[in-house]
Amino acid sequence: xxxxxxxxxxxxxxxxxxxxxxxxxxxxxxxxxxxxxxxxxxxxxxxxxxxxxxxxxxxxxxxxxxxxxxxxxxxxxxxxxxxxxxxxxxxxxxxxxxxxxxxxxxxxxxxxxxxxxxxxxxxxxxxxxxxxxxxxxxxxxxxxxxxxxxxxxxxxxxxxxxxxxxxxxxxxxxxxxxxxxxxxxxxxxxxxxxxxxxxxxxxxxxxxxxxxxxxxx
Length: 217
Description:
Layout lengths: L35 E5 L5 H10 L15 H9 L4 E8 L7 H7 E8 L14 E9 L8 H6 L3 H9 L5 E7 L3 H9 L3 E9 L3 E9 L7
Parallel strand pairs: 4-5
Antiparallel strand pairs: 1-2, 2-3, 3-4, 5-7, 6-7
């Protein structure tokens, strides 16, 4: 059983992926959206402030609320924990410059957590980084955003920046959330065979993938 998470859930669950259907299956190679960026939300930049406001407007679809909490709950927790780095998934190569642009281009949200050593998830937690609270905004589902942003080089570059000693990414996904498992599988994650039972969430499955050397650059 995983230690209690301060979100009120007992396991470090990740999220619900992006629901690409057939394109989420391992081996699918439909290109993701062009120009995706992962922008850190722990920086005091104008773009970070705009994106923070945009992600706080995201709400899970009704059928997904059992799998992921809204950023309004998870972003403050990341802000309060120095081991966690929140980020926005942004579509477009240029920095956003206003609130409307941030809302239009903010395609998702996630948190990288360096404190994997506090959780019994992988054999070598000192060299792992945990992806948690990940989701794709409803307007961007079905467009490959989840797979592209969880794949190398995007997520690997960010992980290398915030957890330079890490060589492995780890996440937990609800056993019933097959949609998300397909997305993560298409991004290179594989099941470890480890199952966590947590209250009140039920069974979560641990998935891992190696980080690309040098952040995949």
